[in-house]
Each structure stands twice: as C-alpha cells, then as structure tokens.
Amino acid sequence: MMHCFNRPVLAGMLVALGTGLLSPLPALSQARPGILNEPPYARPGRAPATTTPVTEPPVEALQPPAATLSLPRAQINIVLVNETGTTMTYQVVGDTNERSLAAGETYTLRDLSVPTNVNFYRPDRGPTDVTAEAAAPGELRLLFKRGSSFDVDRTSLTVQASGQVFLN
Q: How far apart are CA 82 and CA 84, in angstroms?
C-alpha cells in the first residue's frame, strides 16, 4: 500500500511545531504563572498607572464674549434678523427642530431658557457674518449678513447663564 504525502506541507508543519508556532498558549503562562490575570497596577516593580483627565479650557478663556446681557429672569428672547439675501436655517438645540428664516425676514425666539445654544447656517453653505448685540435686558439681537470669506463664518451661538454671549 502506498501512502501519498505532500512533502513540502509535511515539512512546513514539522518546522512550525519545532519553533513553537503551533504550541498551545499554556507555554506562555508557564514562563510566569498568573501573568494573564494580573492587573497592570499589581505587577511588581511598576508604579500605579495614573491618568489625568483632559479638561478643555472654558470658552471665556479662549475668546472674549461677543456681547453681554443682563438677565433679569433665567430666560432670553433672541431676535433673528436675516440680511444675507438668502434663506438661513437655524435650530435652538434641545428646544426646536431646524427652521428656516427667509431673506429679509425677522423672527423672535421667545422665552428661551438660559444657558442656550443656537446653531445656524446658510443652505448654500456660504459664509455668514454674524453680529450679536444686547437690545434690551433679556433680549439679544442676532444679525446675519453674507460673509466675505470663511474667516468670518459663524455657525453657532451660546448664551451662558452669566449673560455672556459667544459666537463660533
């Protein structure tokens, strides 16, 4: 009876067995028992691992406020004025769905809780120059104009409980 072996495959398997490639994992754990179960902080000769949480600086430290309001109540009215010549899309985060403000229109968002965030953009994705000014106590006027470049483009407004207003 004649046996048929593929000699190159058989030779490769023998070499793999000899080098330990096909040996089971217990050989690794025999070198140092329990190494797979040790937490990193319990290994002898190692200092405990410490992680420092990454804390971003507050926005006040990065830029000056665009406006500051007096807030007699914890609510604000925001008057949106669209002078871009095109539609603006806006949303009060956590309060409204996306809405549209046609070119040349004005709309007042009333009795928004503070702090609040408003996102806005031009649907044609062109740059928007935004000016925020305190119109009255508890009232902010937000003027949208067509931007000359993306260096002036703004897409969000944050009004903090302190009355500070930031554009980004």
A: 6
Half-sphere exposure of 67 (CA within 13 A, CB side): 22
Pairing, β 139-146 against β 75-83: parallel
Task: Show Cβ contacts of residue 111 under 8 Å, excluding neighbours closer than 6 positions.
Answer: 75, 76, 77
Amino acid at 139: E
Is residue 131 helix, strand or coil?
A: strand
> 113: which 2 tokens?
């809780």
Q: What is the pLDDT of residue 29?
A: 46
CA–CA dist 76, 140 (Å, integer): 7
**What's the confidence (pLDDT) of residue 55?**
74
**Paired residues of 4 in beta bridges:** none
Angle at alpha carbon of residue 78, lines to 111 and 101, rounded to 5°:
115
Task: Count how many residues are written for the chain.
Answer: 168
Distance between first and last Cα of the chain:
84
Is the whole-model pTM more than 0.70? Answer: no
**What would the pLDDT profile of 36-86 be if each residue is shown by its tens digit?**
555 555 555 655 556 777 777 665 667 899 999 999 988 999 999 999 999
Tokens of 17: 């067995």
Query: Rounded to 5 degrees, what are φ and ψ at 12?
Result: -65, -40
